[in-house]
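Posting for a labmate who doesn't have an account.
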Amino acid sequence: MIRKTVADVKEALQGVKDNMTFMVGGFGLCGIPENAIAELVQLNVKGITCISNNAGVDDFGLGLLLQKKQIKKMVSSYVGENDEFERQMLSGELEVELTPQGTLAEKCRAAQCGFPAFYTPAGYGTEVAEGKETREFNGKMYVLEEAAQADFAFVKAWKGDEAGNLIFKGTARNFNAAMSGAAKITVAEVEELLPAGSLNPNEIHIPGIFVQRIFQGKDYEKRIEQRTVRTKE
């Protein structure tokens, strides 16, 4: 039986070095790999290129890496509620490659499928298309986008088994599914780790072949990016 479990997050992140490119799953603060991010902070790796939909908030998620100036470049589609992200971007301290959200997801999925590039109509005629090949198909113009390339993909799932099969819960599926298997090494942290064969095959979202390392995470905060409540009348 194939087993891809590792003891903890420290073992899961072995091989992480400065100046690497990481994919980090999640959407806002939904489904982010909290344990992996915390370990990256502890390792103090520098010069990171980070591929992620956004960069968390100032004191949580990828915002923790931004606070310590560990990220050199963000490839993302949304600045969000992160003031430090905005400050570093406007000051020129942080290189930011803003990418249409669907294009970003497809760049990850193309890498997952082994496709080197794909054509998309998103961004044609804007600065997104500058320096890129364009081509007409059936009377419509498209932009050639290359697949994402990364050393590690860090994803978070609800359940997983020892063989690396993953099940995501609700909207936490987001970028986690597309990034699984899209890097040289995919590290999955899960809330519940089960023996191989325990998951219903019909419920598995990502098969274990896309995962190299899996471990059971702990101490999840699951914060909400911005909470708005009605004032008491």
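Reply:
Got it, the structure tokens are right above this. The longest strand covers residues 152-161.
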